[in-house]
Structure formats: structure tokens, C-alpha cells
């Protein structure tokens, strides 16, 4: 039997280049080799959007369209909507007994997000416990491999801990998953910040039009110490060159630009123009495919429904095993 992949995204808006290099690229590459399930984690998105739940439906479709646009093949990959698999919620509750609050408190990604989201009315328990629900996501599908961005590593670690505890305590039925990080562990934002984040507005989206793309590239952060094109420039921490390295297939051009940049023999505009061209070349086929699917919303819905149906079948099987292992499969 083929090994399984489970990974997913919160549907908080369209996906960006950070998602692509962190995880989407690996999913596309591995879809022939692995039995792949991709989860649109709308319940997780709800944990910090519960005051505007009406935003979720559009975003679910948006994310599904992005998946198809980057080349996930609906004939192979199962696109699953989290809220349409209620078994996930059940498993999350059982797992809650296996996790201490101290462990959650130590989770660095969770800590960082709590700081960032600035919950003014107090920290919702739903948000605080989302790593547990994510462990349910991964394990209900018995995933071996989880392709994710670097920031998700603590979630996989939490999942492995739960699996070890469950298997020791009840019965060895769960699989301890491995994380797989993208070729580029973390793509910086257009502002030079650590990562692309919708709330900061430093993203380049997979569906950006050429005009939007040009605007984002031309206003990118570069080297703040460089005032004139004749000043020697710095490549480290300069997202324009990070993007060139990742997305420009013309390595000779990138080499030449770098050489001239550090010498002070090229202007930012030329470097950015060439980056725009490279990125646009990369996004063009994705954009075209995206438009095809966006024109057929009924087809996208059908793909989601079918993927979810197949995902739920797996989830139901796992839950039968889980209840039996926990001795709560009562015969009443
Ligand atoms: N936490 C992930 C994110 O913010 C989304 C996610 C939910 C996920 N469930 C998952 C990722 C299971 C991997 C596996 O992007």
C-alpha cells in the first residue's frame, strides 16, 4: 500500500509564494508516489475568525482553486474540507486528555501567533488548542509524511508526542508522522520580514495579475544602506535576491546581477525588472490554470465533495479502531 501524505492550509485567503515553496511544491512533486490528502482546515481558521464565519466559504473555494492551479491532480489528490469530517472533532476531544497545558504553553509557533493576533478579549480556548486538532487531522488519515513550512514543525512534534502516548496507553494503531520541509524553508516577505503573512500585507499571491505583481515587486524592500545605484549593495537579508535565487531560472543573469550589485554597478530598478520577469514567467501557467478553474466553480465544488467523501471514509475507519482501542466501542 502506498504511503500517505496529509497536509493542509487554513482558508484565510488566497495562497502565496511562501505556501508554494514551503509545501505546495512538495505536494505536487509527491502526488504520484504518495496517497495524498490535502485538508482545507476551516475549523482551524475559525479559531481566530469566529466573529466573521461568513468569510470561510469563499476562502475554502479560493484555496481549492489554488491547489488545482499549482497542479495538484484531482484524479490523485483528495481535497478534504475539515468541517465536513466531524470525526476530526471527536478525535480532537479524545486527544485533549493526552496533552497538558504546559506543553501547549511551550509551543513556539502557538506562542508567536498568540502574540501576533493580539486577542483583546482574552485567548480563546479554541485557538489555544488548535495544535491538538491538527494532530487529529494528521493522524486520522494515518499519514506517514507531512509536507509543511518550517513554522509548522512544532505541530508535527506535538502530533508525534500524542501518537506515542496513545499507542503506549491504548493500542499501537496510530502512525508517528514525519515532517517534510520545502526546498526553501522560509520565504521572506516583500518587506524583508521573516515570512509572508496576509495580515502584514507582504505577500505575492499565486493569483496576482501581472499588474499587481509588478507593483509588489517594484515596491519591494532591498538594501536600506544603499542610496545610489553606485553604492556597493548587500545581498544578505535582501529579499529581492532571495526571490531571484528561488524563482529566476536564468542563473547566469542572477550571478551577473549579484556581481554588479555588490560593486555598485546596477540600479534597483533593473534588478526588480528582471525579478518581475522571472516571477511572471513562473506565475503565468498557474494564473492560466487558475482562471480555467475559477470559470468552473461547479467543478471545483464537485472535486471538493468527492475528495471529502473519500477522506471521510478513511476517517471513519480510523475512528472505529480508535474507539475500540480506547474501549469505548460499546455494544449497547
Ligand atoms: N496549521 C496549518 C497552517 O496554518 C494548517 C493545517 C491544519 C495543517 N491542519 C494541518 C498543516 C495538518 C499540516 C497538517 O498553515
In short:
This protein has helices at 17-30, 42-46, 56-70, 87-95, 101-106, 108-117, 125-128, 130-140, 153-169, 210-218, 239-247, 251-263, 268-294, 297-325; strands at 4-9, 35-40, 78-81, 145-148, 178-181.
Explain what this protein looks like in three dimensions.
The chain is globular and about 80 Å long. The chain folds into two domains: 4-188 and 297-325, HUPs (Rossmann fold); 210-290, Tyrosyl-Transfer RNA Synthetase. It has 14 helices and five strands. It is mostly helical and 332 residues long. The structure holds tryptophan.
Features:
5 strands; 332 residues; binds tryptophan; 14 helices; Tyrosyl-Transfer RNA Synthetase; Rossmann fold; single chain; three-stranded parallel β-sheet; 2 domains
CATH classification, class level of the largest domain = Alpha Beta
Structure class: mainly alpha
Spans with pLDDT under 50 lasting ≥5 residues? none
Overall helicity: 40-55%
CATH homologous superfamily grouping of the largest domain: HUPs
Described by strand count, sense and barrel closure, the largest sheet is:
3 strands, parallel
What amount of the residues lies in strands? Answer: 5-15%
Q: How many structural units, i.e. domains?
A: 2
Strand order of the largest sheet: 1-2-3
Count, helices: 14
Q: In sequence order, what are the helices and strands, one letter per element? A: EHEHHEHHHHHEHEHHHHH
Number of strands: 5
Intertermini distance: 35 Å
CATH structural architecture of the largest domain: 3-Layer(aba) Sandwich
Bound molecules: tryptophan
**What is the CATH topology of the largest domain?**
Rossmann fold
Radius of gyration: 22 Å
- Arithmetic mean of pLDDT: 97
What would you call the shape?
globular
Amino acid at each position: 500500500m502506498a504511503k500517505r501524505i496529509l497536509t493542509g492550509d487554513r482558508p484565510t485567503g488566497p495562497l502565496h509564494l511562501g505556501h508554494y515553496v514551503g509545501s505546495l511544491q512538495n505536494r505536487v512533486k509527491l502526488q504520484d508516489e504518495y496517497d495524498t490528502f490535502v485538508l482545507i482546515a476551516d475549523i482551524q481558521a475559525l479559531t481566530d475568525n469566529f466573529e466573521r464565519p461568513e468569510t470561510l466559504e469563499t476562502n475554502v473555494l479560493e484555496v481549492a482553486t489554488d491547489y488545482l492551479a499549482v497542479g495538484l491532480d484531482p484524479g490523485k489528490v483528495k481535497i478534504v474540507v475539515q468541517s465536513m469530517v466531524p470525526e476530526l472533532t471527536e478525535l480532537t476531544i479524545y486527544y485533549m486528555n493526552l496533552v497538558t497545558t504546559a506543553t501547549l504553553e511551550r509551543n513556539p509557533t502557538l506562542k508567536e501567533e498568540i502574540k501576533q493576533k493580539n486577542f483583546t478579549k482574552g485567548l480563546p480556548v479554541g485557538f489555544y488548542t488548535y495544535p491538538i486538532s491538527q494532530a487529529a487531522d494528521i493522524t486520522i488519515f494515518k499519514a506517514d509524511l507531512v509536507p509543511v513550512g518550517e513554522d509548522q514543525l512544532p505541530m508535527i512534534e506535538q502530533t508525534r508526542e500524542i501518537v506515542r502516548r496513545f499507542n503506549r496507553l491504548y493500542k499501537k494503531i496510530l502512525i508517528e508522522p514525519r515532517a517534510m520541509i520545502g526546498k526553501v524553508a522560509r520565504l521572506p516577505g516583500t518587506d524583508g520580514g521573516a515570512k509572508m503573512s496576509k495580515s502584514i500585507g507582504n505577500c505575492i499571491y499565486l493569483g496576482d495579475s501581472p499588474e499587481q505583481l509588478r507593483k509588489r515587486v517594484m515596491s519591494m524592500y532591498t538594501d536600506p544602506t544603499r542610496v545610489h545605484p553606485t553604492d556597493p549593495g548587500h545581498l544578505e537579508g535582501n529579499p529581492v535576491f532571495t526571490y531571484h535565487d528561488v524563482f529566476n531560472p536564468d542563473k547566469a543573469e542572477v550571478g551577473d546581477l549579484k556581481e554588479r550589485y555588490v560593486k555598485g554597478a546596477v540600479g534597483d530598478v533593473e534588478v526588480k525588472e528582471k525579478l518581475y520577469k522571472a516571477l511572471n514567467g513562473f506565475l503565468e501557467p498557474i494564473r492560466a490554470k487558475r482562471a480555467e478553474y475559477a470559470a468552473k466553480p461547479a467543478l471545483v465544488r464537485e472535486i471538493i465533495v468527492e475528495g471529502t467523501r473519500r477522506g471521510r471514509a478513511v476517517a471513519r475507519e480510523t475512528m472505529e479502531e480508535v474507539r475500540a482501542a480506547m474501549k469505548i466501542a460499546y455494544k449497547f
